[in-house]
Amino acid sequence: MPHVSGHIHPEWDTIRQAEFRDSLTQLNDSHDLATFWGVAPRQLNYYAFHVDKGRAYSTFSIPKRNGGQRAIKAPCRTLKYIQRLIHESLSRAYGPHPAVHGFRQGRSIVSNAKEHTGRQYVLHVDLEDFFPSITRKRIYGRLIALPYELKPKVANLIASLATDAYSRMPQGSPSSPVIANILAAELDTDLAKLCGSFHCTYTRYADDMERTLYNAVLAGVSLDGRDYFYVNRMETKEPIERKGWFNCSCCPPNVHRLLGSLQQYLYTVDDSGIQIHLYNTSAIETKTRQGQAISFSVRTDYPRTGNVEIAIGTEGH
């Protein structure tokens, strides 16, 4: 295999996604896939089904940012080239969720963090062994399903080329990031929908997921209601824990006070009119300066989309 920097097939960038997906679905076997990629069919079959994958990868460790070691499996030169072809092919076919910031052109860990700036609380979740938890069978099953609909022989070939001797996706393969995003697509959709229903922002960078609460005071309360959270997690790297009740308890009254005044966080009304402060599905009834009754409602699924519908009604209308 030749040494390549940059895209192997830059001409693919000019093809519309739907057209590119259709091209992939027309491939029937290893010969078709090899022709599409511009490689020899025997090489694909060899590295998919016959090579000693224990020797096809070099294993080493790198330190994790939060301590511990991360095992890296780097493929040999030829297998790496093939996995780069997988990466380029699936990247053109994959339509990422807007919440995804990892392994996307124009997105980064910085763009992921910017979605949560200025928020009171951020919940950070790290998926353990994200790449190795993805198996050959899972990759195969996803690629033959909508919206990819690859032929079984092609999907099986790609799944085999993308996994190691244990039929798991290795950390260190060029094809692992895009496949991980594809396998996490339903997770992204479900979590974005769930977070949106609680007025939160959901993002994912690789195996890190963040969830920001717009009205976050309740996130400080433990599930049993006995412990409270005072430290801003983004301001410290030290271990943190919720604190128990004080003799003079302030948290429960503050929570109740907030719940009782939520309408003031959504709207305010004065002589100049009605002001909207938070986009949230809600409604109020009030009166104008002249004493006329007026109703005001907002319907939105913000922040999942930017759509906000505002309806204003007066008495009798």
General description of the model:
The chain is of the alpha+beta class. The chain is built from twelve helices and ten strands. It has helices at residues 17-25, 30-37, 41-50, 53-56, 77-93, 109-114, 136-143, 152-161, 176-183, 185-197, 251-260, 262-266; strands at 57-63, 69-75, 121-126, 200-205, 208-213, 267-270, 273-276, 282-287, 293-300, 308-314. Strands 3-5-4 form a three-stranded antiparallel beta sheet. A three-stranded antiparallel beta sheet has the order 8-9-10, with no helix packed on it. A hairpin with a 7-residue loop joins strand 9 (293-300) and strand 10 (308-314). Helix 7 (136-143) packs antiparallel against helix 8 (152-161). It is elongated, with a radius of gyration of 26 Å. Mean pLDDT is 80; it is low at 1-5 and 213-219.
List keywords for this structure.
disordered N terminus; 34% helix; elongated; 19% strand; three-stranded antiparallel β-sheet; 317 residues
**Major beta sheet, strand line-up:** 3-5-4
Mean pLDDT across all amino acids = 80
Figure out the total of helices.
12
* Order of helical and strand elements: HHHHEEHHEHHHHEEHHEEEEE
Fraction of residues in helix: 25-40%
Number of strands: 10
Radius of gyration: 26 Å
Measured distance between first and last alpha carbons? 73 Å
Strand content: 15-25%
Secondary-structure-derived class:
alpha+beta
Please state the overall shape, judged from the principal axes of the Cα atoms. elongated
The low-confidence parts are 1-5, 213-219
Major pleated sheet: 3 strands, antiparallel
